[in-house]
Structures are given as structure tokens and as C-alpha cells.
Amino acid sequence: MLILNCPYCGVDAEESELSAGGEAHLKRFGPGSSDGEFHDYLFMRENPKGVHFERWRHSNGCGKWFHAARCTQTLEVFGTYSAQTTEPPKELKDAITANRPGWTWR
Ligand SMILES: [Zn+2]
């Protein structure tokens, strides 16, 4: 079972307390963007076998959205952090790189 620590209330929440929100750190495109950019924003998502950044909501807890970094292959959770960021915290990226040599953020 997937267990994520909510960065807001500090609870180790089981998957049944959470709601998945898809890929984190999407770059949004709106009016003025090209058809290709808007298409990719709507439909194209990463689907890695390995490190992935996701949005989760503590729906049966505090109700807040947060981001989680985990491995889709091993289900190892690297960490969770506020959803109010445009990219993962440096400490988290460094920890993932130390654990997965060769991995880089985008
Ligand atoms: Zn919470």
C-alpha cells in the first residue's frame, strides 16, 4: 500500500485517504499559445518507469493538495512537499540523484 506523508498536517496517510491528481509541475498553456502547445498541455503526460512527480490531495484528512516524488517501478517514496512550488526542492532532487545516479530533473 502506498503511504505518503502529508506536508501540511504531518500525517502518514494511506492511499485510501488520498486522491491522485496526475502529473505535477505541468506547464500551462492558454490563450495565445499555439495549437500544438495547447494539445500537448491537455493530452501529453510523462509515464516513466522510474522517478515520477505527482499531485495528491489529502482528501480524507486536511483536504490540501501536495506533490510527491516516487518511483513507479519500486513504489519507493522519495518525499512530499508543498504544491505551491514550480519545481521540486533542491534537497529532494539531490536525494533522488544520490539514490538514482544519472537521474536529472528535466
Ligand atoms: Zn494533510
Can you summarize the main beta sheet?
A: 4 strands, antiparallel
Average the pLDDT over all residues and give the rounded result.
95
Strands in their spatial order, largest beta sheet: 3-4-5-6
* Straight-line distance between termini: 28 Å
Unreliable stretches (pLDDT < 50, length at least 5) are none
| Range of helix content | 10-25%
Pfam families: SoxD
GO molecular function: sarcosine oxidase activity
Protein name: Sarcosine oxidase, delta subunit family
Descriptors for this entry?
106 residues; alpha+beta; Folate-binding fold; two-stranded antiparallel sheet; 2 helices; binds zinc ion
What does this structure look like?
The chain is α+β, with helices and mostly antiparallel strands. The chain has a single domain, classed as Folate-binding superfamily (Folate-binding fold, 2-Layer Sandwich), CATH 3.30.2270. 18% of the residues lie in helices and 29% in strands. The protein has two helices and six strands; from the N terminus they run βββαβββα. The chain has helices at 35-43, 90-99, and strands at residues 3-5, 12-14, 19-23, 51-57, 65-71, 77-82. Strands 3-4-5-6 form a four-stranded antiparallel sheet, covered by helices on one side. The protein has a two-stranded antiparallel sheet with strand order 1-2. The longest helix is centred in the C-terminal third of the chain and has 10 residues, at 90-99. The radius of gyration is 15 Å and the shape is globular. 16% of the residues are buried. The mean pLDDT is 95. The structure holds zinc ion. Zinc ion (ZN) binds next to loops. InterPro entries: SoxD, SoxD_sf. Pfam families: SoxD. One of its GO terms (molecular function) is sarcosine oxidase activity. This is Sarcosine oxidase, delta subunit family. One of its GO terms (biological process) is tetrahydrofolate metabolic process.
